[in-house]
Specification:
Distance between the termini: 34 Å
CATH topology: 2,3-Dihydroxybiphenyl 1,2-Dioxygenase, domain 1
Number of helices: 2
CATH architecture: Roll
Strand order of the largest sheet: 1-4-3-2
CATH class: Alpha Beta
Order of helices and strands: EHEEEEHEEE
Oligomer: single chain
Number of domains: 1
Mean pLDDT: 89
Length: 138
């Protein structure tokens, strides 16, 4: 079906109560600059995907992962972000625990990619959005 969602692109939208504060966080802490911007919203490009941060009067509960990156070298990314002041969450859930560096082994993730699991970390942006970064374990 040409009108099917399976042929569309997925783009994440993250709420921000203070858009200027969010822009500073994404720039200073994550090293990202908006690809495009308009009143009330910032659009970021990472690889061939996009995500938007938009002005909102509501706040995220931050109780679940709202957006995630998949990277090739999780340790290098964690080291870089830590050097920029990003603080990683300790997430303990059934089936995995974070180690002293804040990295968790999540068994069983990404089997369709030939992986046996995922190494992952989580952090909150300036607006309380919970964001994950993962690396498939092969």
């Amino acid at each position: 079906m040409s009108g099917s969602l399976s042929h569309g692109s997925v783009a994440t939208r993250l709420p921000a109560q203070d858009l200027a504060r969010a822009r500073r966080f994404y720039s200073e802490k994550l090293g990202l600059e908006p690809f495009d911007e308009r009143p009330g919203g910032l659009l970021y490009r990472c690889g061939d995907s996009f995500f938007a941060v938009f002005q909102s009067t509501g706040a995220s509960p931050g109780t679940f992962t709202q957006m995630g990156w998949e990277v090739e070298d999780l340790k290098a990314v964690v080291d870089e972000l830590r050097s920029r002041g990003v603080r990683f969450e300790s997430v303990d859930a059934p089936g995995f625990r974070t180690d002293e560096r804040g990295i968790a082994l999540v068994e069983g993730n990404y089997p369709s990619k030939g992986a046996t699991g995922e190494r992952a970390v989580w952090f909150r942006d300036s607006e309380g959005n919970l964001i994950g970064i993962g690396q498939p374990v092969r």
